Amino acid sequence: MARRRGARRRRDLARDRRGHRARRSRDLEAFERGEDAEHIFLLQEDIDAGQVDLDRLFTFGDALFGHEFRPSDGWGDADAVLPLARVHDGARGGLDTFSCAGCHSVGGVDGAGSATQNAFFDGDGDAVGSALVRNAPAAIGLGVVQALAAEMTTDLQLARDAALATAAETSARVSITLESKGVAFGTIEVDPDGTIDAAGLEGIDADLVVKPFGWKGTIARLRRVVENAARLHFGVQSHVLAVDHETAPDPDRLGDGPDWYDPDGDGHARELEEGMLTAAAVYLAMLESPQILPPSDPGLRDRWARGRAGFDAIGCADCHRTELVLLGSTWREAPDTTSGPAVELNLLRDGEQPKSGARVQLFSDLKRHDMGAELADPRPESGSAIAPSVFLTRPLWGLAETPPYLHDGRAATIPEAIVAHGGEAAASRDAFVALSPEAQADVHIFLLSLSRAPRLRVPL
Ligand code: HEC
Ligand code: HEC
Predict the structure, then answer these.
(1) What is the reported pLDDT for 111?
(2) Which of 185, 320, 443 to mutate to test the pocket of ligand 2 (most atoms within 8 A of CB)?
(3) What's the angle, vertex CA 284, arms to CA 247 and CA 111, rounded to 5?
């Protein structure tokens, strides 16, 4: 009986995949615990064996995103003193909540976070003032973002490798300018013995990996974002994180559990299986992309067009690049630890609609910039070399649906966010401030068209 009910429930979930997450998680609460965990537990071996198609991976990822983690699924860790705290204690999370959807809900499913959903990272576990405040960005459209960044990484690393080869062949120092998709990342100088001087780099780490996730731009793959989020917010730790993928143990590992499969030593082995990370990454890659929805009223449409031109004219698009062109739409998701075939999907076609085209209207250069002292964090992130005032150009697609704005959510409105720009963006901000109120409103109207497709929500 329970099995039949379980099967029916799974079918219902597949049909009713989206839009009713709150109701569903309530249902799941009421449902048998084993069933609920079964919805999110997935072995990589089964994916490697070709037993889980894209639709099912999406369903698993969706369930994982909405899942309310509990101690019975490894929520918390052996070191947890207080069960819940808004302010994180260093690399150990609050733990601050129970589900991904609990923070990513503004503007629709998989959306952004409100001010009250802000996370307080890297603090002393107690005082808000000790932490780095972060507002949750929306989690849609991110497959193409990762893919764009990966293509840029390939360009930059190929250029570096070619310079290394030339320097070795010619026995002379080589200096090159790094650029990809029209975005310049400064210069490197390469010596014949293979030494690289990276002092001239701009907006990117010395490894030349474009990392498009997080306000500081520190993570390159969605898989790692999910792994980090689960550890930080729920104390749910993958054993993959416990062992660095190639070399030393990960400094972010929680605890030194007796078993490789239970690093946080809370008695729950395999809290976050590789297969679950694959499902979550594939799910995120299959979500809809934000859309530009210009106003239909003819008068407003003219103002929108003027605002769009104004955005370029005052230098906003120097950083918020209107579009980046995606060359390859094939996504391959493979874990670090098994050798099975990668899951493949087409980023511009598979999964939820609507999608972006290959000309991705992202409004970012995926590069870091110095935004000045006013916007800076109070201190650097522990263990990070990125200055407190330096942030990744936040993609503006979907902007209308993601208030509040800026890394700590300090700006309630779009104009407030613009005026808070400083540092490298000071000239552009000044140009905005110098516009007539009417022209400022035009830019605002344009930015309000960066949105996401309206969805019919059927009450059940
Ligand atoms: C306590 C609130 C909170 C919870 C819970 C949470 N997130 Fe987040 N999420 C954030 C914040 C804040 C950021 C920005 C982090 C940063 O800049 O370092 C973020 C960033 C992200 C990003 C990167 C977005 C981007 O464009 O940079 C993704 C993807 C994401 N979260 C997915 C998840 C998933 C999956 C889960 C569940 C495992 C989850 N989040 C749980 C608050 C939360
Ligand atoms: C030098 C690069 C640069 C320029 C020029 C620039 N921005 Fe930004 N912008 C950024 C960065 C970096 C952030 C993220 C700041 C943070 O994390 O707090 C950002 C954030 C924003 C945000 C908030 C996004 C969100 O989701 O919270 C808006 C809105 C915005 N910019 C609009 C503009 C407009 C309009 C202009 C032109 C007047 C402009 N920007 C010029 C780099 C730039």
Answers:
(1) 96
(2) 320
(3) 120
